[in-house]
């Protein structure tokens, strides 16, 4: 695959570089923040070779590419004017909803760190296994070096998060890293014993005595008490600190003369932010973090089995909507404050439930394209990358997706029953197994639940999918007919006896125009199919043939139908009229209704739609154009037609004209 071409096509269809506020990527997705999502050609992107699907969630426009996303991302950045790290200044226009804003912030801060965090976590898990099996002594140089390699990223996490948060909050990255480094500076940690010795081990005084926040004070800053806490591996304090820096830095930026701004702005910002972080932000956010972590642990302790069923069963849904990002900081918080995390441990079975269902579909299907996708998705899933499996295979078929949720819920119940916890954020899929090894007790009952949950989730999903999950179409050998028309060359599975020549009549009274006159690239490019456009004179839409209604938008601006001869027709009243929310439209039909040629489908107020600033030119598209040899206009362009006049001639592939 040409990643360069794919990257250019994706950028073009998200509205071009001018429509992109920022773009980052995770394991499988390009995550865009667009200025106007309506400018993106979602349908074209979904049908594009190399794109699995498109997801809109958490204030992001997510193009799911699969395992090749790093290569596509690199080409995207290289071939555009975007910054080298894929981030450009935000220009959001309307404020996002609070939940969307939170998800966007979390994903923006944590996404760049997860790859290396997982890698070092895998090394740490490997070291734990070496010690557990007595292959390496905990006092050996091998252990010391490998443990430092695995532990360093998480220990100095405040510095790493300071850098990624600086990108999100638009702070000088090096200044942010200095702030993060101050929190874990070794001399501060080492100085506390000396301070204790100087005071005879006695606190200068105690703050909040008699409360859960009781804090002995051993040192001060300019006479202000400093509550000493450990910020190694912490998450929340540094994020809040960098957010605070994003308010302080612009303040000085506006007031310091340009000639000395380069060094005075970071100096003054650091002098304000670091002490305030130690005195106020650090203690307050640490206490808040402790309360949250304790609260989640309390909920978990009430019923670990129920918690496992809920989180295991819903994890894939959270991933689809991008809401899983909200749980990652909680997991890191639990590990940093309590040494272990039960939350993410409960979703372990999800990955293996997915690949169990995918394997069943792959083995049983007779569709070679689906089989090839199944094998690649299965291999990706083994290593924890399940988006290709979800979006490409199980979710479109619905039943397999539900089966995987049920199987993962049962796996989560097993993990909850045995009290399985994660002790570090390691790899995904099979690489995550060492993460559940207790560093103190080694292999115990909670660890034995890991292979049990994996096997149960996998086998149950496989068996249920074999029994109930495959559609009839998946088990049939498709008949492929090569077709060529003015805009498309495609191989599509069709049943030859269903392709019949057909004439569609005009569903409107008005002037006939070419599709090229429609100011929408999805229609005028022929990407949706061939057809014609009409500028209506009367706001009434009628059925162009006998058939069944297959689509009625709740807003009334578009109606689709499948004719008795097999043609799939889309009639779209005006451009961007979906934004009217149904105003000026009266739906006269319903889904799955059998209609006859000339039946009234829709009424709309042409004058009011125009007054609202919308065009009323109406494309009439044959969306399954590749089934036909030709889709020819009978009515001449610029001519006037009335309802019932012959409009389009659909020529058969098999012995037609």
From TrEMBL:
In this protein, which residues make up the domain named PTS EIIC type-1? 104-482
Q: Where are the transmembrane segments?
A: 114-137, 143-163, 175-197, 217-244, 264-285, 305-331, 343-363, 375-394, 401-425, 445-464
One Pfam family of this protein, by short name? Answer: PTS_EIIA_1
* Known EC number: 2.7.1.-
Which ranges carry the PTS EIIA type-1 domain?
A: 520-624
> Membrane topology type, per the record?
Multi-pass membrane protein
The UniProt GO MF terms for this protein read: transferase activity
Q: In this protein, which residues make up the domain named PTS EIIB type-1?
A: 4-86
- Residues in the active site? 26 (phosphocysteine intermediate)
Q: What is its main location?
A: membrane
Q: From the Swiss-Prot or TrEMBL record, state where the protein is found.
A: Cell membrane
Q: Which PROSITE patterns match?
A: PTS_EIIA_TYPE_1 (PS51093), PTS_EIIA_TYPE_1_HIS (PS00371), PTS_EIIB_TYPE_1 (PS51098), PTS_EIIB_TYPE_1_CYS (PS01035), PTS_EIIC_TYPE_1 (PS51103)
Which keywords accompany this UniProt record?
Cell membrane, Kinase, Membrane, Phosphotransferase system, Sugar transport, Transferase, Transmembrane, Transmembrane helix, Transport
Protein's recorded name: Beta-glucoside-specific PTS transporter subunit IIABC
Q: Which organism is it from?
A: Dellaglioa carnosa
